[in-house]
Design goal:
The protein is mainly α and 72 residues long. It is 58% helix and 0% strand. It has helices at 11-24, 39-50, 55-70. The longest helix is centred in the C-terminal third of the chain and has 16 residues, at 55-70. The chain starts with 10 loop residues before the first helix and ends with a helix.
């Protein structure tokens, strides 16, 4: 999805971001916030930002992935 947004990101960076987010999300006691987004989503956007992806692109990628998984 980041390529569709015109960004050049190495697949290993995206994989690392996903894996770090998967480790952080279940380890917290916070529930989802209104709108269905939660700790995994925040961690995903934050780790993508640390890897040089703009916040808007990371959030757009995360939300579009969330929408795709929610619609089945």
């Amino acid at each position: 999805m980041l390529c569709a947004l015109g960004l050049s990101v190495h697949p290993a960076q995206v994989f690392a971001s996903f894996m770090l987010s998967r480790r952080v999300g279940p380890r917290t006691n916070w529930g989802p916030v209104p709108g269905g987004l939660g700790i995994f989503d925040a961690a995903s956007v934050a780790t993508l930002k640390l890897m040089g992806v703009p916040i808007a692109a990371g959030l757009g990628c995360d939300v579009s992935g969330f929408a795709a998984s929610a619609t089945g």
